[in-house]
Amino acid sequence: MAQYTTVNGSVALITIQNPPVNALRAAVREGLFNAIQKASSDPLVRSVVLSGQNGTFCGGADIKEFGNVSSMSGPLLVEVFALMETSMKPVVAAIEGFALGGGLELALACHYRIGHSKARVGLPEVNLGLFPGRQVIAGEALKLGLLDRVTDHNTVDTALAFAKSVEGKPLDNRRLGNRPCPPLENMDAFFEEAMKRVRSRARGASAPVVCVQAVRGAATLPFHKGMELEKVLLGTLFNSGQAQASQYCFFAERAGARWSMPSGARWDTCRALSISTAAVIGLGTMGRGITVALARAGLSVVAVETQEHQLAEAQRVVSHMLKGGGQVSYSSDLQAAAEVDLVVEAVFEDMALKEKLFKLLSSICKPGTLLATNTSTLDIDRLASCTRDPQLVVGMHFFAPAHMMRLLEVVYGPRSSPEAVATAMQLGKRMGKVSVAVGNCPGFVGNRMLKPYLEQAYFLLEEGATPELVDAALEEFGFPMGVFRMTDLSGLDVGWRIRKEEGLTGPDVPAGQPTRSRHGHRYSPLGDLMCERGRYGQKSGRGWYLYDKPGGRVARSDPWLRNFLEEYRVRNALVARPIHRQEVLERCLYAIINEGFRILDDGIAASPQNIDAIYVFGYGWPKHRGGPMFYAGQVGLARVLEGLERYHLAHPDVPHLEPSSLLRRLVASGSPPIHKWNQMVKGHRSQL
Ligand SMILES: CC(C)(COP(=O)(O)OP(=O)(O)OC[C@H]1O[C@@H](n2cnc3c(N)ncnc32)[C@H](O)[C@@H]1OP(=O)(O)O)[C@@H](O)C(=O)NCCC(=O)NCCSC(=O)/C=C/CCCCCCCCCCCCC(=O)O
């Protein structure tokens, strides 16, 4: 756990050994404590170097231990830090790879810090619902005073030589606790301003706000008082559900990599195909972003667009985004895809068009090319059936902007081969995405759950709410944007096209169909009516809100919309009633959660963690709320069930509010913790 050797006669070299990231679990803390004591008491030792095994200094406290703080054993981290800081022999940290969180604190407890030029240091615990903040690379850390020296050579050797050179030198001014915090003019005003900014960006997350309080304490109080305050604040955060939610997200983000398919194929038994060249077909917003993402991942990409003016514009935009990096060529001819290893289709969301394209690609591309579609809702299997090799067809559902959004839904159809899935998953990793493998059904996981969410938002408008009221409730909950601001941004016409494709609106709706009902279920035509009036959202300068111009970003309330809603209600004999924030939250969020349970039961998602990763990394669900399924557990499954039952009773024509059978079974079996939910899922995964 902490290897101890003596080097150059007088230097004790302590190496942390806890792969993969040298996290500071109990045995490591104990090992470090004992090693420092040993170095202190050995008369031959005059200095100490602290390093980490395998080119990695330390990834911080062991997050797995946070789940059960009461049973934590071994010395506390602060006890290890104090022992190092008060050592009478100089302790030098040799930082390679990263020193993060408690790992950086460990380095700060040393008297000197030498970092490799590529090392990253930082305190990212805010992402785990604890304070403090961002990571910096060695050069910046040197400027900030976090490191004393940066090297391009062997860091441990440099630190060993350095330790030798400082043996016997006074240490008092090297101890962090002795170093004064430089006073700031207008300290109070500075912290008040900082707090204001952090609060407005935190969207309900406590950690960033508490972090400012702790830094204020550190800057204004004597060292030991600052430490006491930090301990109290840390305790508050630890006991808040937010820290648990954020830590859960840390592991959910990584859980997708261990994917499995209903056939039993798994991440650790399937080999990915080798991919070095790709074609992206269709260079609208999505296609351009996908081209950038693939090129940045090191693939040689040919970007294909049959419309010449669109191709020229895409070339300009993509080159600008790549800033000269990346290997991209452009073509208006589909034949350019003949020799590539992978094709990602990103044309319009139109089944007939995609089917035609897949047929063509299947005849053009060399045998063995993986054909991926970026469809957000359409049937992967139908596309696969147009091709020569249906086993080589998968969905790669990117999220806009595709080069920035972390999420990638990898969709397998009943005929997709495990190798095809492994290849798409590995590509996701190369692009730095959080990739989640999911089954094939309309909307897959993310958009299937979005449907009942949007539906509830529209119904709430019919019943008396305004877009402002609904959005305020959701933004207060922590979403970066409420549902109406979000649809204005993504474009109301996207959903309109899908509803037309589904025969819910447009010429395919049979004559005499009631306005607010489809197949015997409640339906809101509000989104269709908006589109029929050219209100597509930001792109047309008006949607649920008003913008100063087409493409404008600043949303203003629109008096036209208020009149439109009033007239709509009168026309449909609806009486507006006051709607409370709580009802908005419960109906919108419980509808998402309920669909999540159905998706689990259908085997479309392999675990609640996968669903939560999709919502946090693709749909803006606040990380400090842990994702919809985790949130359901925090609210209490019985309470979610009771809420759904109540709303379904009030709206019996809304099937999405009818509690899912899995939720009922879980409540009936005593609401087990989230990691046990899979045991209650139906035996096998169904496929469309
Ligand atoms: C950059 C990384 C380190 C590495 O990235 P990469 O190489 O891509 O690898 P990954 O896939 O991410 O990770 C590999 C596997 O390692 C696991 N992992 C990573 N980091 C940790 C960790 N810190 N602990 C445990 N496990 C870790 C990861 O899950 C992967 O395994 P698997 O695939 O999931 O199986 C990158 O991993 C990274 O960024 N890691 C996180 C870095 C980080 O955030 N560090 C900070 C940790 S928090 C910390 O250090 C806090 C310190 C101070 C507080 C200490 C508090 C102690 C408890 C006191 C309790 C007081 C409560 C009082 C209550 C009361 O009073 O009532």
UniProtKB/TrEMBL annotation:
Record bears the keyword Lipid metabolism: yes
InterPro entries: 3-OHacyl-CoA_DH_CS (IPR006180), 3-OHacyl-CoA_DH_NAD-bd (IPR006176), 3HC_DH_C (IPR006108), 6-PGluconate_DH-like_C_sf (IPR008927), ClpP/crotonase-like_dom_sf (IPR029045), Enoyl-CoA_hyd/isom_CS (IPR018376), Enoyl-CoA_hydra/iso (IPR001753), NAD(P)-bd_dom_sf (IPR036291)
E.C. no: 1.1.1.35, 4.2.1.17, 5.3.3.8
Record PANTHER family: 3-HYDROXYACYL-COA DEHYROGENASE (PTHR23309), PEROXISOMAL BIFUNCTIONAL ENZYME (PTHR23309:SF49)
Annotated 3-hydroxyacyl-CoA dehydrogenase NAD binding domain residues: 278-440
Keywords linked to the UniProt accession: Fatty acid metabolism, Isomerase, Lipid metabolism, Lyase, Multifunctional enzyme, NAD, Oxidoreductase, Peroxisome
High-level lineage: Eukaryota, Metazoa, Chordata, Craniata, Vertebrata
Protein name: Peroxisomal bifunctional enzyme
